[in-house]
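Try it yourself: sequence plus NAP, in.
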Amino acid sequence: MSGRFEGKKAVVTGGTHGMGLAIVRGLLDGGAEVVVTGRNEKTLEEARTALKGTKSHVVRSDAASMADIAALADLVQQRIGLVDHLFVNHGYAHFSELAEVTEESWDRHFNVNAKGAFFTVQALDPLLTKGGSVVFTTVANDRVFPGMSAYSGSKEAVGAFAHVLAGEFLPRGIRVNSVAPGFIATPSMGMIGLTPEQRAEFVEEGNRATPMGRAGTSEEVAAAALFLAAEATFSTNVELAVDGGFAQGLSAEWAADSH
Ligand SMILES: NC(=O)c1ccc[n+]([C@@H]2O[C@H](COP(=O)([O-])OP(=O)(O)OC[C@H]3O[C@@H](n4cnc5c(N)ncnc54)[C@H](OP(=O)(O)O)[C@@H]3O)[C@@H](O)[C@H]2O)c1
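Structure, out:
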């Protein structure tokens, strides 16, 4: 039986762990050939080991570097030729309240998350196939989370240009959609430099704040992203929340009341 991605070529930025890796695994299981990027040598090596023997190409490419983005486009062309499905999933988040946000951390958020996402799509645009798809990973921004202003702003920018790109890609039949995760129990919880204790605390916070009473899994986000890429053939310009109700106007207390 042929898989849902048989013969397809895909690129996943930030695919070395967490939900990006779950997207990569879903693509590979479905028969795709996948270029996977990351920045950190240790996680890149772990991903290479985990994906050994599959149709994957795990490469270092810093989304904040225009030179790396250009080199990525060359590599993608050489290794897989065209791109049917592009997942712009990489992300950088550092927890800092207003007074602690430095110009450097602001620039880092916007360079990696916003600029990096935008110019990745621009660089790979010539390789995108007619009828293909782009899926961005944003965040459940309809509900505020203190300490995440710079991060949320940078992801809001991604959501905004995703809408415009959905229009620009219409003539080529390329659909542009986003997944907006809430609390997802990934190795990093989407946050840079958490200690194991802080991560556990963050998972606990997610369980408390999420109406469904738990953090989501990487696989749950991947399922939504892969659906948008492959099966949602009449959907474009959609941001699909994968957040257990976190940003959907439901209160976690209502769930607690019923237990
Ligand atoms: N986990 C959550 O609760 C949550 C919630 C909402 C949204 N998100 C968003 O969902 C996406 C995935 O999150 P996650 O928790 O699975 O993982 P993550 O820790 O946010 O990392 C995602 C990926 O981004 C890569 N990355 C980071 N900086 C990069 C850079 N400068 N250039 C290239 N790649 C870079 C990481 O690779 P290396 O480690 O190799 O650098 C990793 O593969 C991110 O966009 C995140 O912001 C996460």
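One thing you can check immediately is this: Strands lie at 9-13, 33-38, 56-60, 83-88, 128-137, 175-181, 239-242.
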